[in-house]
Every structure is written in structure tokens, then in C-alpha cells.
Amino acid sequence: MFEPPWNARVYRNRHGRGTRTPMFGTRLPRYRTRSGMFDDMVAAQIRRLNGAWPQLVRPVQFAVEDVPPSDPAPWEIEPRPTSQCFAASHGIPARIVLYRLPLQTHALSRMELQWAIRDELVGRLAQLYGRRPEEIDPDWGM
């Protein structure tokens, strides 16, 4: 349908000289948010672990939340603010939840954050299945 020019919406850029465009290209690193990059790191670690241990990783659900709940559960003796795991029960699959902000604040660089994510996932999988973390990933804790 044709619309007369005086009815058409005109979007201008910040200085009024042309159409508004994004500040960063969609493929540039600044386009991704910190939470999006964290989700990508977690997904990459899950894919890596799934390649090595598919029978351990497939039945587990993984989730990422921003912060841990403010009140710990009564059965938690030593609450870990960086992650939590829940065993399977009554038709509900096992779950591992990573908390983004505590992990990001403890890591000084992107590489340290990747290692922290790896260590949390491997440690929680080991806790879930009653194994040592070194059995699942020999590089755990390095």
C-alpha cells in the first residue's frame, strides 16, 4: 500500500543527517551483552562435556540465573553462591543451575571465567553422580 511522504515516519540518526542505524555491527564483539557471552560460554562447556560423557550430560537440565536466591534451603549446610545442583526425583530430571553475577565478579578475565564455568559444571556433575571431578575432566581445578 502506498503511503504519502508526509504520513511516512522518518527516523533520523543522532545528528539528524540520515536514517538511524545500530552503533555496532551485529557481528562485532560489542554487540553481544555480558549475559549473552556468559550463556555462550556455558553452552560451549556443555557441548564439550556432552562429547566426552553423553550418558552423564544428556539426562541433566542446565540453567543460568543472574543471582542465587537470597535465602538458602534448610537442607543446605554450606551454600555455594556460584552454582547449585538438584537431584532427579519423581519424574523431574536432575538440574544444574549456574549463577552468572557471582561467577563474573570473581573472574578477572574471560579465560578465568571460562575456567570457572568449566570447574563449576564438572564439580556439579561429579557431585550429582557421586564421582570425583578428575574422572569427568582431568583438567579440573587447574
Question: Mind sketching the topology for me?
Answer:
Layout: H1 34-52, H2 54-57, E1 61-65, E2 83-86, E3 95-99, H3 100-106, H4 110-129, H5 133-136
Parallel strand pairs: 1-3
Antiparallel strand pairs: 2-3
Structure description:
The relative contact order is 0.13. This protein has a domain of 92 residues: 2-Layer Sandwich (Zincin-like). It has 142 residues and is α+β, with helices and mostly antiparallel strands. It is built from 5 helices and 3 strands; from the N terminus they run ααβββααα. The chain has a 3-stranded mixed β-sheet. The longest helix has 20 residues. It holds the Pfam family Zincin_1.
Give the C-level CATH assignment of the domain at 34-68 and 80-136: Alpha Beta
What percent of the residues sit in helical stretches (DSSP H or I)? 25-40%
Strand numbers in spatial order across the main sheet:
1-3-2
State the separation between the terminal residues, measured CA to CA. 63 Å
Shape: elongated
| Number of strand elements | 3
Number of helices: 5
- Give the strand content: 5-15%
Q: How would a textbook summarize the main sheet?
A: 3 strands, mixed
Gyration radius, rounded: 22 Å
On the 0 to 100 scale, the average pLDDT is: 82
CATH architecture of the domain at 34-68 and 80-136: 2-Layer Sandwich
One letter per element, helices H and strands E, the order comes to HHEEEHHH
What fold name goes in the CATH topology slot of the domain at 34-68 and 80-136? Zincin-like
Low-confidence stretches: none
Look at the helices and sheets and give the structural class.
alpha+beta
